[in-house]
Amino acid sequence: MIKFLIERFEKSQPKNSDTRTAFGIFAGIVGLLSNLLLFVGKLLIGLISGSVSIMADAMNNLSDTVSSVLTLVGFYISGKPADKEHPYGHERFEYISGMLVSLLITFVGFQFFMTSIERIRDPQSIKVTPVILIVLVLSILIKVWQSIFYQRVAKKIDSNTLVATAKDSLNDVFTTMAVLVSATVEGLTGLKIDGFVGLLIACYIIFSGLQLIREFVNELMGLRPDQAAIDEMKRYLSLVPEIVGYHDLLIHQYGPNKTFASVHIEIDDRWNLTQAHEKTDDIEKKFKEALGVDLVCHIDPVNLHDQRQQFIHQELKRIIKGINSELKAHDIRLVDHGSQPRILFDLVVPNHFKATDQELKIRIQEQVYRNIGDYLVEVTFDHNYLL
């Protein structure tokens, strides 16, 4: 059913349309209609039975309706093209709408928590008729279907907002099952555990809401890109035969499908400006076509023909590798003028490395004096790059 619905909707979309935005809005509409239906049904049942759990569950469905509206608005705004005020587009608004959904989930959890505390203090019986039982079971089935639907669409368009909405639907399954458990236990034993069960579910909802808030805050602040995406970019750059090497890859994301990157590429210093410009243009164009990433290349010329510089390059890299294989040196330059010749280079240091920058510099300087000669080393330490 879900597969058929998704495929049918996908086929109905015109060519060259924004499929991601269309799917997000479609998922929002499906959620809006189904949540409205569940809210009305559960509210009536809660009033008839007098169950705080059922009425709280109905309010939760009402909040889900608001969540569906937020999802609709979020995908609509994130699908808007770039403009003067937002030159990188509006895709990050999807993170904002997801954040609002997460805040709503947490708010409902706290409200449910307070209501459950009151019911523990003043327990009341739950009246569950066969009709109520059937409606609650149907509610569980609808919410399970809804959660799976959101998950499938989220996976198809890579949307954390729909992942949050799917989790919200799953929370509803647990709250409704809690009502059934409370009613069953009360019917068999006479124990009124409605408030206690509601309290447990409220804690779960609050926990899941706070987790989602944390995820969206991280997205808005800027997370390290997915390792698979980084590896794919590294693999592509490694396959470019004309460049000597690359380093300082930086990636900036302005939404799920809006990624920018910059990288330093090392080229033979005998290239002229036109040749270097044409090569970097070609790399940037193919990078965009293959990976969908807007790349900007910075050129670092490397001396490949001077034997003394080649010796210093190789010996310095051997020294650094001997200290730790995870250390990476680049932009190695030799400055001969002045009172003492200098070796300048950048050193990429892993975040978990225990030695301080000063300790590393002293060790490198000592070995340069011993193995290369009377050169003063000047090191620029890089701690924030992906490579």
TrEMBL record:
Belongs to the cation diffusion facilitator (CDF) transporter (TC 2.A.4) family. InterPro entries: Cation_efflux (IPR002524), Cation_efflux_CTD (IPR027470), Cation_efflux_CTD_sf (IPR036837), Cation_efflux_TM (IPR058533), Cation_efflux_TMD_sf (IPR027469), CDF_Transporter (IPR050291). It is a multi-pass membrane protein. It is found in: Membrane. The chain crosses the membrane at residues 21-45, 95-114, 126-145, 195-213. Residues 225-301 form the Cation efflux protein cytoplasmic domain. SUPFAM superfamilies: Cation efflux protein cytoplasmic domain-like (SSF160240), Cation efflux protein transmembrane domain-like (SSF161111). Its main location: membrane. It comes from Enterococcus ureilyticus. It holds the Pfam family Cation_efflux. GO terms for molecular function: monoatomic cation transmembrane transporter activity. Keywords: Membrane, Transmembrane, Transmembrane helix, Transport. This is Cation transporter.
